[in-house]
């Protein structure tokens, strides 16, 4: 069961807004376009994970997308966390 759904990252939404507003001949436009393309590629990779995850039994797994957690002094981000009922190799 998906507990926390994946959403489009704010960084991509901001870069897309900049692309709509900045003229094509602006000197910073290539950097904005490149940053947007890189971020979209990463997001596309995260979305590709959704396909195999849908085959997991919903009653046996909890799925959490885009987690930001704190570890004593720093924060870290997890794209996808699976929690199963059992642990076995």
Describe the structure.
- By secondary structure, this protein is of the alpha+beta class.
- The chain has one domain.
- 40% of the residues lie in helices and 28% in strands.
- The chain has 3 helices and 3 strands.
- It has a 3-stranded mixed beta sheet, with no helix packed on it.
- β2 and β3 form a beta hairpin.
- The longest helix has 20 residues.
- The two termini are 22 Å apart.
- 2% of the residues are buried.
Say what oligomer this is. Answer: single chain
* Outline: elongated
Number of DSSP strand runs: 3
- Helix content estimate: 40-55%
Overall structural class, as computed from helix and strand content, comes to alpha+beta
Series of H and E elements: EHHHEE
How many separate domains make up the residues?
1
Low-confidence stretches: none
Total of DSSP H or I helical runs spanning 4+ residues = 3
> In whole angstroms, how far apart are the ends?
22 Å
Specify the biggest β-sheet: 3 strands, mixed
Mean pLDDT: 90
Strand order of the largest sheet: 1-2-3
Beta-strand percentage?
A: 25-35%
Radius of gyration: 17 Å
């Amino acid at each position: 069961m998906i507990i926390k759904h994946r959403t489009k990252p704010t960084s991509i939404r901001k870069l897309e807004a900049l692309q709509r507003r900045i003229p094509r001949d602006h000197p910073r436009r290539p950097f904005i376009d490149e940053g947007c393309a890189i971020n979209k590629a990463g997001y596309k990779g995260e979305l590709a994970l959704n396909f195999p995850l849908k085959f997991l039994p919903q009653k046996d797994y909890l799925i959490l997308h885009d987690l930001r957690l704190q570890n004593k002094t720093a924060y870290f981000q997890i794209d996808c966390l699976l929690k199963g009922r059992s642990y076995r190799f």
